[in-house]
Design goal:
By secondary structure, the chain is mainly beta. The chain folds into 3 domains: 183 residues, no CATH class; 89 residues; 88 residues, no CATH class. Helices cover 11% and strands 61% of the residues. The chain has a 21-stranded mixed beta sheet that branches. A hairpin with a 2-residue loop joins β7 and β8. The N and C termini lie far apart (116 Å). The relative contact order is 0.04.
Length: 439
């Protein structure tokens, strides 16, 4: 008999025996018998209760697989349920396990329901499940396909008294490793609510990330796309957010272009906002910069739905969230036939202190008022017009803020007033707000 044929026959017989042993083991072996050992190990090691109310099934074709149904995990050292999963399907390759590689062909999670809590002291209910800096991964993992279907996540923030909920969450992704992720797609409905108030906002969100590479000091992606819709009663905001060519190294990050499109509707008034700018920043210093920002504004009012109010602005914006926070912005451009120049500084996000300068060459308020609210007998005497304007202006919204700045208008018209060369000085003086106008 040919030696090569003998070796081939021997190898074939060995493979048949191995396959037969695996099939016999899967057929005769009942993984459900080990449920008590699994649940006891979780209780001893993690101080949580694991319930396996459904069956555990093993499969061998086309890949080795595991199917678990009706799984629940409790809160830390408590009987209260933290998460429940209707079904988990997992298919994986056995050979890479010998070299500590977890190669998953497909992971399907159906009906995930979990509640994440941030307590008033800043702790969360998953702190014990998160890896620490001293933990080294037991396996290098590679997931070919991930599907999360019909999940519901609740985020309860007891520190800020908020409840956020994502429902009907569906997520898919291809080729997930420790250093990369491809073709992530997420869609979810949700709502946000203040715990002590009877108010809520509903939203819908879609997230697409074609590719993402990341490491300890590196992150890169061709594009990140986010589409969201927020509604409250009859008011709504639709928005789209895009980052292109994102790179991050050693805490520094940049994007060639950040684009935001917003369409807001309130009281039958529609506002369309579009702006784009390169984005850069430093995660270590918590600084963000929008340079060469360009903004386009269109406002549609019910009294003139076919004639929008248009504006264009450009400028720079710098934000630092470290310590108490700081924001600086400067803009110039036009709103209809008004030329605008503005500088704005805000320090301390917790207790805002605002400084500003706003210069407008001309402003006709009648363009923005319904015809029924307009009057046509103008007061052109500056002194009378300024006195009349002082009586009608309401700065009560600024009374509780630390505000200092100037507002200069070359010429101003509103209803029956006409003022030229007016400048208002706004100053916070302890608990009072003082205003004065230039002569």
């Amino acid at each position: 008999m040919n030696r090569t044929f003998k070796y081939s026959l021997t190898i074939f017989i060995v493979i048949l025996l191995l396959v037969g042993l695996i099939i016999s083991a899967v057929t005769l072996y009942d993984p459900n018998a080990y449920k008590p050992l699994i649940t006891q190990w979780i209780k001893d090691e993690k101080k949580r209760e694991l319930r396996l109310d459904g069956n555990i099934r093993l499969t061998v074709y086309p890949q080795f697989g595991l199917n678990i149904s009706q799984l629940s995990l409790s809160e830390y050292d408590s009987h209260e349920t933290f998460t429940h999963i209707e079904n988990i399907q997992l298919s994986l390759s056995l050979w890479p396990l010998l070299s500590k590689q977890l190669v998953v062909g497909k992971l399907i999670i159906q009906g995930l329901d979990a509640t994440l809590i941030r307590y008033t002291d800043g702790r969360t209910n998953i702190d014990d499940l998160l890896p620490t800096d001293n933990d080294s991964p037991a396996f290098a993992f590679d997931i070919e396909q991930l599907h999360v279907n019909n999940a519901e996540l609740v985020f309860r923030d007891e520190k800020n008294l908020r409840n956020d909920r994502l429902s009907k969450l569906n997520l898919t992704a291809d080729k997930i490793t420790e250093l990369s992720l491809d073709n992530l797609k997420l869609h979810a409905l949700g709502d946000t609510k203040h715990i002590n108030k009877n108010d809520s906002n509903h939203f819908e969100v879609q997230l697409n990330i074609p590719n993402l590479q990341f490491g300890a000091n590196h992150l890169a992606s061709d594009q990140i796309n986010l589409i969201a819709k927020i509604t409250q009663l009859e008011d709504s905001i639709n928005g789209a957010f895009t980052l292109s060519n994102i790179t991050s190294t050693d805490h520094h990050f940049s994007s060639d272009m950040m684009t935001i499109e917003l369409a807001a509707e309130k009281n039958a008034q529609i506002v369309n906002l579009f702006f784009h700018s390169p984005l850069s920043g430093n995660l270590d210093t918590e600084e963000f910069k929008l340079s060469n920002l360009k903004l386009n504004l269109r406002i549609f009012q019910p009294q003139s739905p076919d004639i929008p109010i248009s504006g264009n602005l450009q400028g720079d914006l710098f934000v630092s969230s470290k310590s108490s926070g700081y924001l600086q912005a400067n803009f110039s451009g036009n709103l209809e036939d008004s030329l605008i120049k503005a500088e704005f500084n805000l320090s301390d996000f917790n207790k805002p202190a605002i400084q500003f300068m706003l210069d407008i060459d001309q402003f006709n308020m009648n363009r923005y008022l319904p015809p029924t609210q307009q009057k046509h007998q103008l007061i052109k005497n500056n002194k009378d017009a300024i006195n009349h304007m002082n009586q009608s202006l309401d700065f009560s919204l600024l009374a509780d803020l630390d505000v200092n700045g100037t507002l200069h208008i070359g010429s101003f018209q509103s209803n029956d007033l006409f003022i030229s060369g007016v400048q208002f000085e706004i100053h916070s003086d302890h608990d009072h707000l003082r205003t004065s106008q230039a002569e």
